[in-house]
Amino acid sequence: MEDRIYINEVAPRDGLQNQPVLVSLEGKLALIQSLCAAGVRSIEATSFVSPKAVPQLADAAELFARLDQTHGVAYSALVPNQKGLERAHQAGAREIAVVLSATETMNLRNINMSLTQALTVCQETIGLAKALGKRTKAYLAVAFECPFEGVVDSATVIRLAEALHSAGADEIVIADTIGAAGPTGVRALLTPLLANYGRTALSVHFHDTRGMAVANAWAALECGLRKFDSSVGGLGGCPFAPGAAGNLATEDLVLLAEQSGLVSGIDLVKLLDTVVLAESLVQRPLGGRSYRWLTSGKYKPASMR
Amino acid sequence: MEDRIYINEVAPRDGLQNQPVLVSLEGKLALIQSLCAAGVRSIEATSFVSPKAVPQLADAAELFARLDQTHGVAYSALVPNQKGLERAHQAGAREIAVVLSATETMNLRNINMSLTQALTVCQETIGLAKALGKRTKAYLAVAFECPFEGVVDSATVIRLAEALHSAGADEIVIADTIGAAGPTGVRALLTPLLANYGRTALSVHFHDTRGMAVANAWAALECGLRKFDSSVGGLGGCPFAPGAAGNLATEDLVLLAEQSGLVSGIDLVKLLDTVVLAESLVQRPLGGRSYRWLTSGKYKPASMR
């Protein structure tokens, strides 16, 4: 039986949210269409946050109105709270994601709530989303290291994951928000979580800040994990901050899967077209760690080897 | 007991050999001195190949005459054959390395010999080096994939490793010369080799062509391997060839070790000075996958965390 990985593409939301160049609705739809053409079947499309806080995603409702949710691609929307959920619901989103930072200070700095308050908001939002019949993902941000508190205790993450799971989350996503994880830490945290929730209800979200994202993805695969977030071209991170790097690039993850005998369902050659499109949309060079080689003409699809 | 990795720095030889900017002898000595100051204790210093074939390393004898081999750093020299060995011996090299490509076509294209002929040359060179009292390493190049023959059968590599070991090689170095390996293949090949030779007599040499070097290093660590080649700043590869990328960068490997709780003995902050020096020598930007982050001011040495 083929061994498969499941990729949730996050470029349209996590990738775009901090980009200084405002991408038009048509541009976002073209990006999503290109991702679908490459074989992507799960996409974080946008977020229903305050348009003032994230002007890039102010067109969330218009975007959802234009998505075809009948052709086998799952589109999710990030919602910060019940108000965001209501907007997502009105816009027709079928799958939503909530985010909880794993530390006290990160919650205070980011959303001016204590960890307990933020957890309560997430639990209530998940409960309401489930009542509305939506598939619900819960992100645990800064799950490995917090920029304010340092290394995060895995027991805390395990406890918070259980609180979100108990609230009804269909999937827990462990996020290395600042790209600080190493493969040893990935294994140490994912092993007990996989034992608790299994590979269909657990996912990871890596950033490549320290150049460790591919190694971390491999460590996660080795643990048995099969669901990943990634962003085409590595789009994401803050383009102004020195040292900030983007998300785990989808092309790197697909190549890792191919080199490991795993099926991703994504056509790397077509995905390179998506990188070019994304570059034109954000008006800067993109591309993961393998991009230079992939575009050198030396890559051959598995079917042509 | 501390778990330690052993890094053999290859920038002065493998890193420099294809660089278009000719680096002076003083420049090479400064590079080596900077590496030593960062804590590197094993350095591939040069190669005794034809000065016509590799003008960059024509000063091999002068370089060795200037090296202090009494202060705890092991310097090795690559030698292609007995003639090279004689030159290395006269220059005072105590440790030499021979290279055997694992495929018929690579040997024919590279040195105009069959695999059998090339193996014989290596065996004879190793035998003579041992008779001269030298520590001897044997590289198996294109051990995962050959640019002409494709994927290399692990049984072939295991057989050639044994032939080199039987000839007297103190250490076998498995080289992913074109950076084509993935972590699954690394594990599949290193596991039996580690069973045969143990971790003190086996090393790996990765290139980062496909962005997999850090993941491959992690896979090797997971197998139990502890000896690695790497090149500061990722120096190496052919700077003209599109899609060619350098060696596994020493800073990436040291960071991976630190993130995995392994001791390397190398001071990353000082090593960043070496990257800057190497950049000035080859007159182009260098730096591994973690370099941007390491130089952002966010990195803290373990002692300061």
UniProtKB/TrEMBL annotation, chains A, B:
It comes from Denitratisoma oestradiolicum. Belongs to the HMG-CoA lyase family. This is Hydroxymethylglutaryl-CoA lyase YngG. It comes from the Bacteria. InterPro entries: Aldolase_TIM, HMGL, PYR_CT. GO terms for molecular function: hydroxymethylglutaryl-CoA lyase activity; metal ion binding. Its EC number is 4.1.3.4. The keyword Cell inner membrane does not apply. SUPFAM superfamilies: Aldolase. It is an enzyme of class 4 (lyase). The gene is yngG. NCBIfam families: PRK05692.1. Pfam families: HMGL-like. The keyword Ribosomal protein does not apply. GO terms for biological process: ketone body biosynthetic process; L-leucine catabolic process. Keywords: Lyase, Metal-binding.
